[in-house]
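Progress narrative, work stream C.
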Amino acid sequence: MPISDITILCVDDEETPRTLRKLILQKQGYQVVTASSGMEALEVLKQTNVNLVLSDQMMPGMTGSQLTQSVKTMWPAMPVVLISGVNEIPKDASCADKFISKIGGPELLFDIVAQVLKDYGILAELDHKTR
């Protein structure tokens, strides 16, 4: 599947990081939809064809780990990447496909997203820099 056909759901309770991630992923060629909470993300997933969920870990109401558990229960084949400013992986984050630190920057984010999509057979090639 070409990158331009891949939709990523970006979940973060804070508007600025959510918008920044959306813009940098769109610049790579992905389609991006957003949600400001775990509950909103679950509603988006019911209504939109999403290929990967990228969620912040620390959110009020429902953490990224809790969202991941719900996603994996309802959509077992949905890849989920958690991102956090806390460098220690939470014990309940083990059901996520990858856990990355925000300090890794955009290149790490691009590489992890592409690798997870490739692992799931959604993305045929890893070289996102050719776009």
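Work stream C, second folded protein:
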Amino acid sequence: MNIKDIENLIKFVQKSGVSEVSLEQKDFKITIKTQAPASKEQTVHFSPAQYLPAPSAPAPAPAPVASTPPPSTPKASDDPKYTTVKSPMIGTFYRSSSPDKPAFINVGDEIKPGKVICIIEAMKLFNEIESEVSGRVVKVLVDNSTPVEYDQPLFLVDPS
């Protein structure tokens, strides 16, 4: 399973409204959990050959947990001339391959499609994220080593 398959699975889970999806192949296992209303919980299991949801009996409501508000995301510029590069997955954002290495990109750098711009760690896998746009980096919107959500803005790029 490649990164695009995982991204498509995450999008499917978000659109379907289920709270958890598990996919297991012979040497690969992935579980995606989302927050769903307690009154409408269902579990969906996928097999490699069949991608149809199989609803199960409603699970008992989990005990209330004190939740902290999600970290505030810096607002992307409302300026339409900038392109926003968004996170393709949930994970931990890293600007470089290791703490002693330089950042993949900095403000003012030129980027082109295919250039590695950051790493997102998800489930102990370090995924190199490549740019899909070209232009000059205007702003880095996320701090190094912080959690990011799917579709969260990471960079602002001036495509001109």
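The first helix runs from residue 3 to 16. No further action is required on this item.
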